[in-house]
UniProtKB/TrEMBL annotation:
Organism for this UniProt entry: Thioalbus denitrificans
Transmembrane annotation, as ranges: 36-55, 84-101, 113-130, 136-154, 159-178, 208-233, 245-270, 282-301
Subcellular location: Cell inner membrane
A Pfam family annotated for this UniProt entry: BPD_transp_2
InterPro entries on file: ABC_transp_permease (IPR001851), LivM-like (IPR043428)
GO molecular function: branched-chain amino acid transmembrane transporter activity
Keyword annotations from UniProtKB, A to Z: Cell membrane, Membrane, Transmembrane, Transmembrane helix
Predominant location: membrane
Topology within the bilayer: Multi-pass membrane protein
GO cellular component, one term: plasma membrane
Descriptive protein name: Amino acid/amide ABC transporter membrane protein 2 (HAAT family)
Chain segments annotated as coiled-coil in the UniProt record: none
Amino acid sequence: MGLTTPRTGGLLALALVIALLPLAFRNNYHYDVAIHIIINAAVVVGLNLLIGYAGQISLGHAAFFGLGAYTSAILTASHGWPPLAALGAGAVGVGLLAFLIGQPILRLKGHYLAMATLGFGIIISIVLNTESALTGGPDGMVVPAFTLFGWNLYGEKSWYWVFGGLLVLVTWLALNIIDSPVGRALRGVHGSEVAAQVSGMNTSHYKVLIFVVSAIIASIAGSLAAHYAGFITPGESGFFRSIELVTMVVLGGMASTFGAILGALILTLLPQLLAGFEDYEMMIFGAILMVTMIFMPKGLLPTLLRLRRARS
């Protein structure tokens, strides 16, 4: 397989960019912005498998991110668990929850599925806000530092490499899933679920499978993000956070792994570039979503690649 294919060349290019980017950083703020881009990119690469390849909308995906973050926070802060064990417990718990709720709600289609996932996200957000004794309520809770075998992971520079490694790993996993029989089954479900069922495919199995995989990725990213920030609030699992993640996928390009990363890059940088307009952030996200769906329904990166091929 050549270096120009997404699976090899694209992944190597991503790893190279992550490795060389610190050469341009001048302070910890630059590292912090890059870390938030990478966290969002890792989550939306997983979400893109569900939305872009399987064609299943989720308006509550931030709930999985929040559940992973709070599981790590509660188990380490209140019960003294090692952070790595808490991260693993969060991933397993979120995976089981996604499996249980995925069975009924992924039988729904279109706006019914969107409303069901939205309802799930709202329930999780309400629980995190109201169970103050456990989660700290709307004020959030402090998350202990991430320690591993006595080593305390601390500072933006150290965390940058952890999250950079996570993004490369998640991207490698996504590209392998896309190129596998599972990926072909997901595209079959997206193209025509009825035709896939007629051909003998168990479409429910593949939809639930990719729902669980994307939820676990969000949970792991949430756990690590909570330890990095040292603090977590219910806002990380709210409705607007879910819309933000979906907008990143749609803007960058559905069914495009590197398009999703580009969407995360643009929409994470946007608030930094529009400092002073925080009150209009969600309005701007909504406008970007509308413009993208009208003028670039396949997303930014696939559209740019199509224009490039048309000119060559």
